[in-house]
Design goal:
The structure is a single chain. The protein has about 475 residues and is an alpha+beta fold. It has a single domain, classed as Cytochrome P450 (Cytochrome p450), CATH 1.10.630. About 50% of the residues lie in helices and about 5% in strands. The strands form 4 sheets. The chain has a 4-stranded mixed beta sheet with strand order 1-2-6-3. A hairpin with a 2-residue loop joins strand 4 and strand 5. The termini are far apart. The structure holds protoporphyrin IX containing FE. InterPro entries: Cyt_P450, Cyt_P450_CS, Cyt_P450_E_grp-I, Cyt_P450_sf, Cytochrome_P450_fung. Belongs to the cytochrome P450 family. This is Cytochrome P450. It holds the Pfam family p450. GO terms for molecular function: heme binding; iron ion binding; monooxygenase activity; oxidoreductase activity, acting on paired donors, with incorporation or reduction of molecular oxygen.
Length: about 475
């Protein structure tokens, strides 16, 4: 790309000849390295050179809003990835689509059926799954707890997207989605950008030494087709039965029948993204909150008090959530401290631009480094401490403290389409679980690692915990639930 007569690129950490910053950018927790570079260079906007492939890193909320939100007309594209979209075959997902008509059509479809004002559709499905989960927790071994919650978020996604029921244990869709997400998580970010920059790398034979990126991507390729087709076909069959339930698929099909214009691909792509983008992210965020509760029994005590005084001897409904500020703050603080997608999802620009005197080239990937924004001392004093009270003032959520969800769910026109659904699922799960249970270590001597698995997601290192029914009131609520659900 010719840069003659253009302003300078944003500050770049010192690099090496040819490879630039490639060997300096750590494959694990690169978001922390971006912060270190910002501190050294005195700039919250950085340029990183990975062997010629450029990246722009936004390390502050202000810069992310300035570019991705206020200038969203030119910062709403996604870099099409040879590895993820082409070789692994996920380019059809709404979240991976380039900014254009096909993306717009799918985003509109999502909005039409699952926007905030359609809460009557998604809240009922969330409530049902959360309450079924309570019964699983009391019936099954403590060792199954994480699997139980994975089935809960999978169940919410499958029922919203397809109206299909899932098994409470060993459901093939959930196992399948977990496999996909684990495989996606091991794709290294640097590989994605490098293979984009040198697309001929996709022709390197998979057996070739150093072509691990291709082997991993091809393994995913076999999943991606099934991911789109399998559940959609099952949903169509199920819709012909007496059990048929409302879902995005059923409503979109009804709409198309009424208008006489069919675009089944659009339904498949939009339904698939609910599982792909919504299930594992919500599950991971929830297990990070459970882990925070496990190591902060004092905060659990405060939440128990709040829940007992608001709910007494009944289960929470959605209308109760606004009266549970401490519970909400405990979830917000967990999202802040352990954000699930620490370096967000990259956007791409569709035009050359200049920001604060720096040149931002057309087509470059822009990384909103949520981790940097959520750990800065100015907005969040003692940023490494888990402290829900930072969000509370006079017994309510303090509107003056920057809400971490504004960063954790992304920015601008590509902001998470399901943030309101994730929020509803997280708060309802947290309120229900905390009302009924004490979350404790399985064994007093267990060491709980606060670290995450290596990868693009911040997934906690698996931990063990026990959910102990809190008291007689909780026992009787659970007994009533058994009778009402079955
Ligand atoms: C705690 C759970 C979740 C987190 C942390 C999360 C986070 C994100 C982030 C960071 C993005 C990228 C935004 C950007 O490009 O700036 C995103 C995109 C997206 N999310 Fe979520 N998400 C969650 C749950 C969900 C759920 C439950 C759904 C669906 C019901 C969903 C649907 C989507 C979709 C469709 C996109 C793609 C938007 C687009 O490219 O236009 N997400 N999410």
């Amino acid at each position: 790309m010719s840069r003659r007569g253009k302003p300078p690129l944003p500050p770049q950490p010192p690099g090496r000849p040819v490879v630039g910053n490639l060997l300096d950018m750590p494959p694990v927790r690169p978001w922390e390295w971006f912060v270190k570079c910002s501190q050294e260079l005195g700039s919250d906007v950085l340029y990183i050179n990975l062997a010629g492939a450029g990246l722009i890193i936004l390390n502050s909320y202000e810069a992310a809003i300035d570019l991705l939100d206020k200038r969203s007309g030119i910062y709403s594209d996604r870099s099409q990835s040879v590895l993820v979209d082409d070789l692994a075959g996920f380019g059809y997902l709404l979240s991976r689509r380039e900014y254009g008509d096909a993306w717009r059509e799918r985003r509109r479809m999502f909005h039409e059926h699952l926007r905030v004002s359609k809460s009557n559709i998604y809240e009922g499905k969330i409530l049902e799954q959360v309450r079924r989960t309570v019964l699983q927790i009391v019936r099954r071994s403590p060792d199954d707890v994480q699997d139980i919650f994975r089935h809960m978020t999978g169940g919410i996604a499958v029922s919203l997207a397809y109206g299909l029921p899932i098994q409470v244990k060993d459901d093939p869709s959930v196992t399948f989605s977990e496999g996909v997400n684990t495989a996606v998580n091991v794709i290294k970010p640097a590989e994605v950008f490098i293979v984009n920059h040198f697309p001929f790398l996709k022709y390197v034979p998979a057996w070739f030494p150093g072509a691990g990126f291709k082997r991993r991507a091809l393994k995913l390729g076999s999943f991606s087709f099934q991911f789109r087709e399998k559940l959609f076909a099952e949903a169509q069959d199920y819709l012909r039965t007496e059990h048929a339930a409302e879902s995005l698929t059923s409503r979109a099909l009804d709409g198309m029948r009424a208008s006489g214009t069919f675009n089944l691909d659009a339904i498949k792509d939009t339904a698939a993204v609910i599982f792909a983008a919504g299930s594992e992210t919500t599950y991971t965020t929830l297990t990070l909150w459970i882990r925070a509760m496990l190591v902060h029994p004092d905060i659990q005590g405060q939440l128990h008090q709040e829940l007992d005084s608001v709910l007494g001897d009944r289960l929470p409904e959605f209308s109760d959530l606004k009266n549970l500020p401490l519970l909400e703050a405990s979830v917000m603080e967990s999202i802040r401290l352990y954000t699930t997608l620490p370096s967000g999802v990259p956007h791409a620009s569709t035009k050359d631009d200049v920001y604060r005197g720096y040149f931002i080239p057309k087509g470059i990937a822009i990384i909103p480094n949520a981790w940097a924004m959520l750990h800065n001392e100015k907005d969040y004093p003692e940023p490494l401490t888990y402290k829900p009270s930072r969000f509370i003032k006079d017994g309510a959520i303090d509107e003056d403290v920057l809400d971490p969800r504004k960063m954790a769910f992304g920015f601008g026109r590509r902001i998470c389409a399901g943030a309101h659904i994730a929020n509803a699922a997280l708060l309802m799960s947290a309120a229900t679980v905390m009302l009924l249970f004490d979350i404790q270590k399985s064994n007093e001597d267990d060491e709980i690692s606060m670290d995450a698995e290596p990868g693009n997601f911040f997934r906690p290192i698996p931990y063990k915990c026990a959910f102990k029914v809190r008291n007689k009131v909780a026992e009787s609520i659970i007994e009533n639930l058994e009778n009402s659900l079955f």
